Amino acid sequence: MKVTQSEIVISAVQPRQYPADALPEIALAGRSNVGKSSLINRMIHRKNLARTSSKPGKTQTINFYRINNVLMFADMPGYGFAKVSKAIRAEWGRMAETYFTKRETLKGIIQVIDLRHPPSKDDIAIYQWFKEHGLEVLIAATKADKVKRGQWPKHLKQVKEGLGIVPTDRMVLFSSQTGQGKDELWSEIGRLTQP
Ligand code: GTP
Ligand code: MG
């Protein structure tokens, strides 16, 4: 998709704040600091529309971005951020669970995983939870620029096997730094959002 228009719609905490547009929606899920917001920016070629940070925990609300008036991205706060209190973790869980189980326009989830490392316990648990709830997941294995090209297959296998990806879920190698995987990701998003 050629993105000509992108804008933030709202930073939401409560379902009543979710945008009322009936646009097909793709949510970004992943650990804190894995690169969810950077992935959105790369996809829409905006430097900092989705705010990013080298400090984990930057995104604390569900941020909705409207793209070309045909698609919505929902940028979720990261999970597995060790420094937050138990209460905030519980709050995150409630906010995410409400969103993922109630959002009618949700067409699929891009679960962003760091290509460099085996998936964490949280990555695995959350992937399993998506599957149990019948949600479509697309894995974006990001920060590919940090792994030598020759090592990509080994790392992709590590992610695939670590998560136990079901055969119908696709995986895309991605880098927000280089733009690697952008076209492929757009075509997978197209597949998920087809009526
Ligand atoms: P939270 O909002 O805290 O959950 O983080 P996030 O998942 O949105 O991560 P964010 O996009 O803010 O990126 C975190 C850090 O990783 C930033 O310093 C980014 O510049 C860096 N980063 C993200 N993607 C890539 C990538 O593909 N390659 C490299 N080298 N760095 C990346
Ligand atoms: Mg973020």
UniProtKB/TrEMBL annotation:
GO terms, biological process: division septum assembly
Name of one Pfam family that matches: MMR_HSR1
One Gene Ontology cellular component: cytosol
Keyword GTP-binding: yes
Superkingdom as given in the UniProt entry: Bacteria
Family (UniProt): Belongs to the TRAFAC class TrmE-Era-EngA-EngB-Septin-like GTPase superfamily. EngB GTPase family.
Protein name: Probable GTP-binding protein EngB
Source organism of the structure: Marininema mesophilum
GN (gene name): engB
